[in-house]
Amino acid sequence: MRIAIGADHGGFELKEVLVRFLREKGHAVKDFGAFSNQSCDYPLIGYEVARAVAKKGFPRGIVICKTGIGMSMVANKVRGIRAALCDRVDIARSSRLHNDANILVLAATIVNAPKAKRIVAAWLSSPSLGGRHKRRVNQIKEIEK
Description:
By secondary structure, the protein is α/β, with parallel strands linked by helices. The protein contains six helices and five strands. It has a single domain, classed as Sugar-phosphate isomerase, RpiB/LacA/LacB (Ribose 5-phosphate Isomerase B, Chain: A, 3-Layer(aba) Sandwich), CATH 3.40.1400.10. 47% of the residues lie in helices and 17% in strands. Helix 1 crosses helix 5 and helix 2 packs across helix 3.
């Protein structure tokens, strides 16, 4: 799967771990930065990842900052994005099954690398259930208009 990924300086180290992890699992990963732990502005990076997913160039995206809150806010401003801030495997799975989340948001200060790998693996392997959940996702899409 093609995956867009990005982080600010606070999520840089976790992003680097996840880029390697995803590539080892056979995914094609496009890294939108940051490319160091030097201070940078998360909105620009989060927007680029969200825009890439919304334009259908990437079926899924991952964004990371210290708390995940800022990246969640910016990603969800982009039409067509359903970004889910997840700190547990069950929540990540549910974000896909019930909400068809297309961007996973991680908090680098809350989720360590081993747990992040488990969350990402569950999120990527979970389908969208459709049915009544699709009806609700469609309602979200209508609200965006």
